[in-house]
Design goal:
Blueprint (H helix, E strand, L loop, with lengths): L25 E4 L5 E6 L5 E8 L13 H8 L12 H7 L3 E6 L4 E8 L3 H13 L5 H20 L6 H9 L13 H6 L2 H11 L5 E7 L3 H12 L22 E7 L6 E9 L4 H14 L5 H9 L3 E9 L4 E10 L5 H17 L4 H18 L3 H15 L4 H11 L2 H11 L5 E8 L1 H5 L1
Parallel strand pairs: 2-6, 7-11
Antiparallel strand pairs: 1-2, 3-5, 3-6, 4-5, 8-10, 8-11, 9-10
Helix pairs in contact: 3-8, 9-15, 10-11, 11-15
């Protein structure tokens, strides 16, 4: 149900399989404010320890973008008790895997170990929270790592700037307007004290949730959690600013030149409400109808039947405060971008004025039932969902009940929500074209 333009969370499928049954969990708070969630599943001898911090790119200073993503890397540098360069050796040497990922809304770290190494996983995450070594050597090292990542994934990647350009044009006041990876100039200009202050503000127990999921003994896990996390002092409560974007009432037109491409692309993007809303879930279904896969309405008509475009895709980019629905395609000559967008508008208009068939609705519901089962089919997936539903949605039991929201969506709602959000005067049209300098050479 939730899709991402870049798969930042490619978790390894090591955990035991869950079935379409209720996900049982226990939750409690430590005195320092750390929220703890325990999910026991003895079906495979593995355990995941994960910590999600409520800090992402939207929490950054506009003159220091990229800090949250930078810390995704920096907090693997080492701690007072884990020497620099030893983190990954300890994990792999004990039969585990680990990773981290960052979005505009949160940062997530995790380890998957054989179940007899739960204490090790808890100790390592507590070390990351309590005793990280944030020094100039680590900052300089990870600065080069992030620059290389940006070169590979963004600067030198064909169409690698799409999301950044969409965000820049869709948001004027909200911090979603800058790219999660941030500005390299900002990172270069930052002093060590700024990194240390960012850590002190956000990487605190009362801004985090710890999830333990898999094969473990609860009583023992609770003792270890108290032992390693209980002594970490509570941080200063975080005051978050609320940003409200003015409605888009006139088509935004923009252009971006990419030296890495030869074929122009047209992007049509609509601002959507918070992923916590019912409308966002209806828009998920609309995205599936219009553009999810080669059997979708837009792909079948525009690519297969009329051959107006060589390729077409879409993403429903759901976030905590606002979302973005992005449709993109490569117009096929002699068709133009105008032809491409006209075909899209015709299909959206049809959705706004005609109810989808009962057969199509049933197919849609079946697809969401299947996605629901798959999202909770591994220990890693369950841990991620437990943390996300607690931290970003404020309702952890959505891991069991969100499917009921999708089940209750009607054909009439699909029509009405399409009318509400997907209109030509409410969108961005971005011409994403080859560099003109390149074209002249």
């Amino acid at each position: 149900m939730k899709k991402s333009l870049i798969a930042l969370s490619a978790l390894l499928m090591l955990g035991g399989t869950a079935h379409a049954q209720k996900v049982a969990f226990e939750e409690y708070d430590l005195p320092n404010g750390l929220h703890v969630i325990l999910h026991n599943d003895p079906s495979a001898p593995v355990v995941i320890t994960s910590v999600m911090y409520h800090v992402g790119a939207k929490d950054e200073n506009p003159e220091r973008t990229g800090f949250a993503h930078f810390f995704e890397h920096l907090l693997f540098e080492g701690t007072e008790n884990i020497k620099r360069g030893e983190w990954f050796k300890i994990v792999t040497g004990n039969g585990g895997v680990n990773n981290a990922n960052t979005t505009d809304d949160r940062t997530y770290y995790y380890e998957v170990f054989p179940s007899n190494n739960l204490e090790l996983g808890l100790w390592m995450e507590a070390e990351r929270m309590y005793h990280p070594v944030i020094n100039q050597i680590g900052v300089d090292t990870q600065n080069e790592v992030v620059k290389e990542e940006k070169r590979l994934r963004v600067d030198n990647q064909p169409y690698g700037q799409i999301l950044a350009e969409v965000k820049k044009n869709m948001f004027k006041v909200h911090p979603y307007r800058w790219a999660t990876i941030g500005s390299m100039d900002h990172l270069d200009a930052a002093k060590l004290e700024e990194f240390q202050a960012f850590f002190k503000k956000f990487y605190i127990p009362n801004n985090a949730v710890l999830v333990v999921a898999g094969d473990f003994e609860k009583a023992q896990a609770k003792k270890w959690i108290q032992k390693y996390f209980g002594a970490i002092p509570k941080g200063t409560p975080i005051t978050r600013q609320t940003y409200t974007e003015a409605p888009i009432t006139t088509t935004i037109k923009a252009e971006f030149q990419d030296p890495n491409i030869q074929l122009p692309m047209l992007i049509s993007s609509y601002r959507t409400p918070s992923m916590k809303t019912r409308d966002a879930r209806v828009l998920d279904m609309i995205s599936t109808i219009l553009s999810d896969g080669k059997s979708s309405r837009l792909y079948k008509k525009i690519v297969d039947d009329k051959k107006v475009a060589l390729e077409l895709g879409a993403i429903s980019f759901n976030q905590e405060d606002y979302g973005t629905y992005i449709i993109y395609g490569l117009p096929q000559a002699p068709n133009t971008s105008e032809d491409f967008i006209r075909e899209i508008d015709e299909e959206i208009l049809k959705l706004q004025n005609e109810l989808i068939s009962e057969k199509e609705m049933q197919k849609l519901q079946n697809k969401y039932e299947n996605q629901f089962v798959n999202q909770n089919s591994t220990i890693e997936g369950i841990a991620d969902n437990l943390a996300t539903f607690y931290m970003l949605y404020g309702d952890i039991n959505l891991i069991n009940t969100e499917i009921d929201i999708y089940r209750s969506i009607t054909r009439e709602e699909i029509r009405d929500v399409a009318k509400k959000y997907l209109n030509p005067n409410q969108r961005l049209l971005l011409d994403y074209i080859p560099s003109k300098d390149k074209a002249q050479n």
